[in-house]
Amino acid sequence: MAIAVAFRTASPQVCFAVDKLKEAILAVGETYETGELNRPGHVHIAITSSEEEAAMLGLAVDTSVLAEGFEIRRFVHQGQQALAILARDESGAMYGVLGLAEQLRDHLELSFIPECITNARLAFRALKFNLPWSSYRMNACFDLQHETVRDLSFWQSFLDMMAVNRYNVLTLWNLHPFPYMVRSVHFPKATPFSDEELTEWKQYWTSLFRMAKDRGIETYVINWNIFVSEAFKEHYDAQAVDDLQFYYGDAYSTEQIKQYTRESVTQMIDEYPDLAGLGISLGERMDDMAPEARQTWIEEVYYEGMKNAGRPVKFIHRAPFSVDPLITRTSIEKNGFMPEPVWVEVKFNWSHSYSSSKLLLTHGGSKGMEGYWNPPPTNYKITWMIRNEDFFTLRWAQPDFIREHLAENIHDYVGGYYVGSECFIPAKDYSHVEDSPQMSWTYAFEKHWLYYMLWGRLLYDPSTPDTVFQNEISQRYGESAGKHLLRAFSSVCKMPMALGSFFSFTWDFTLYAEGFIATNRTEYNSGEAFISLKDLLESKTFDPAYLSLRDYADRWVNGESMDGFITPLQLADTLEADAHEGLKALSTIVDSTPALSSETADVEAWAYLSLYLAAKLRAGVCYALYEKTGEEDDRRNAQHWLEAPYAAKHWEDLIDVTKSRYKKQPLMHLGETLFSWELFRPQVAADIVFVGGNQVTAVN
């Protein structure tokens, strides 16, 4: 039977979704026909994106359907049953068609597809993407991304993924974007490219912004502040700070720099009509400026540049971590020229959002950050930045953590979330061994497909059940994988949150959970990066609900209650149980392909990391007690947990399951040292030496 689909073919967003629907129709063994809504003829599926289009079918959009929402409704067309996708805008229609395609793959027949009304829970669902040129971070892992990120084929795949997963904002970040985008009228030599080279860049940006818009995705260009290009420095101001020097430091600003930046903002808006907005990161290169002076600089440069443009654009204002919230919120609320709401970005738990679903820390460890939302804002919304500096190589999937996060942190003053990293670009995959039969993906984000699906779909609709993700796994890897792989991931992927809750951190490099790394330095002996037993002993917990090793020992020795706290031993028990649950779930998967084995091997790796952390916590409890009591049995027990078959064996298992697939790879946290789990074998052994070779005097 040919399934006839009627829709407005002039809509790029609907056409994109209909292509996915056509694939689903063909996949279930049916044929496909297309038509226009305003032409007579039989219709099996009708797609509408406005009240006017719905009226062509004699239908009305339900009043409960909101922006970006949709309804799937059965209706009678020319005496026969048909399905209608009813929406108020093209994005809603697109999401409705994508949802219908997904359900058709799962249910196989149109008659089995249930009616529903679905709305977007959050208006702002963004991915953070750091560009490799004029980059905030500098490392080989960024250098090798230039070619891939300049390739529009990459962006087509990436934007397709975003649309299918219901993301509607792409934020592009680098220090100083303007020379790559415009030639300043009064500072033309600040752009170092020839006319031909700049034309190529402009074609690139124009195509990228248009592709995003055609998929219902708004693009924002976000930069840091008082930076100029090397070419500007050469031709206009030899004292200016160029964009390849360290990003943090005192301000250097002149009227020329302000004019150049203001003019660039205006030209960027005017020359790229599909660019939805821009954003600023107030703080870098402003160390010595008073809070009022920082905000005034933004107003005189960015605000004025936006006002001078020929059209309004949306705005992201990163919440300054060292500025009184009243200064920034007053600046935003008194400037009524920007489309509302303005999006105020706040880092959730600084650089390590995969630590706790509770807001315990913001950028800079600021006190009083709640001043941005208490009292509630009038013309802006808070947008939580979910930074991931904790796992780049191993796949991560833990839907309950995301659901818990959303339930805990969506308030009336919250507009949405960003998901992304400062230290990892999900483009070229440089971690996996090339030409491996396991490597069924081209780009890094495709390897992490389930991570992006979980966040995107749950940001759009937090009630999305696990069956949606299980069905997608089944489509890729077979029925038994669909039932059990998500359960396996969900069990073992609690490890980063456990370590993040237990081990105190601050900025990017102070924790890298999948590598068991923590450092405050950019140049150091790589061995010092590993979180040793001594580090665990000396660390306070990030989440105050947890007891540190030494706090636990103090309470134990003093006979104090542990009620109301999560002890290190309880955390160890949970980690061990989760690891075994994940490995048990893997054992029930009977399907086998190289691509599936790559997924299951990552589950194993997380399980061994969980077991390693569990054993190390138990060793830490024993050694902390030894420090207090001097009892030799406590020291021997600590050594017991660090040796095989416990911690040392778990780390060897981790090495075994990763080294055949993953290369030694650049990692921002390690500077020029290449990362592998094998790199830290000596540090695992050093813990045993530390426990065995230290004699302590009991501290009463």
From TrEMBL:
UniProt KW keywords: Hydrolase
Gene3D superfamilies recorded: Chitobiase/beta-hexosaminidase domain 2-like (3.30.379.10)
Name the record gives this protein: Alpha glucuronidase N-terminal domain-containing protein
